Structure to design on (95 residues):
């Protein structure tokens, strides 16, 4: 990946983790799996398999990316994902 810029930072207090995501360009248009990845695919926005994405933080980051891409104005986003009493996860983004 080239030309990396910080895109989003999410705190997830109930699992004591902070996630950082970067936006960049694929070098030579190639991507491959890593130690924690079994499979990857490059898909168009309309083909994102939302119901198969494992982590809410990835879903929230992709939503932010597509919104920024549509406006042509990429920002750095900060937020948190909180677990409510009913075990429902709620994401909040702070601009």
């Amino acid at each position: 990946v080239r030309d990396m810029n910080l895109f989003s930072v999410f705190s997830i207090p109930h699992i004591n983790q902070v996630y950082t995501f970067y936006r960049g360009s694929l070098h030579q248009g190639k991507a491959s799996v890593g130690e924690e990845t079994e499979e990857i695919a490059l898909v168009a926005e309309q083909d994102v398999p939302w119901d198969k994405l494992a982590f809410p933080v990835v879903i929230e980051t992709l939503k932010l990316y597509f919104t920024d891409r549509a406006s042509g104005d990429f920002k750095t986003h900060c937020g948190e994902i909180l677990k409510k009493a009913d075990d429902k996860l709620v994401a909040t983004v702070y601009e």
